Amino acid sequence: MNQYETVFILTPVLSDEQMKETVAKFKKLLTDNGAEILNEEAWGLKKLAYNIEKKTSGFYNLIEFKAEPTLINKLETGYRRDEKVIRYMTVKLEKYAAQYAEKRRAKLGKKEEA
């Protein structure tokens, strides 16, 4: 199994509840297909660098997970089919990036405890 991280941007017209439902849908898609979710972060509503579909902002979300390479096509097909997703990117983490992500998660965990 490889380690991946995916970032997707949801349209800003969604309510908070709709955004959480959409994120949960993609997490369920991952876990139903045998992926192990390592970390999830909701970065919130951010301004886009350039307009996408005449929108100037979007809800950013990050999910780090371990999965088989065949699952990535299913995940990205799900992104393309959902009109709430305006952009997405999935990246396979190589050894050093995975180590950095682990350190970053540990650092964030310590901040949340304080």
UniProtKB/TrEMBL annotation:
HAMAP family in alphabetical order: Ribosomal_bS6
Cellular component aspect of the GO annotation: cytoplasm; ribonucleoprotein complex; ribosome
Keywords noted in UniProt: Ribonucleoprotein, Ribosomal protein, RNA-binding, rRNA-binding
Chain's role: Binds together with bS18 to 16S ribosomal RNA.
Entry's family note: Belongs to the bacterial ribosomal protein bS6 family.
Organism from which the protein derives: Segatella copri
Database matches in InterPro entries: Ribosomal_bS6 (IPR000529), Ribosomal_bS6_sf (IPR035980), Ribosomal_S6_plastid/chlpt (IPR020814), Transl_elong_EF1B/ribsomal_bS6 (IPR014717)
GO biological process: translation
A Pfam family that the UniProt record links to this protein: Ribosomal_S6
GO MF term (any one): structural constituent of ribosome
Name this polypeptide is given: Small ribosomal subunit protein bS6
PANTHER family reported for this sequence: MITOCHONDRIAL 28S RIBOSOMAL PROTEIN S6, SMALL RIBOSOMAL SUBUNIT PROTEIN BS6M
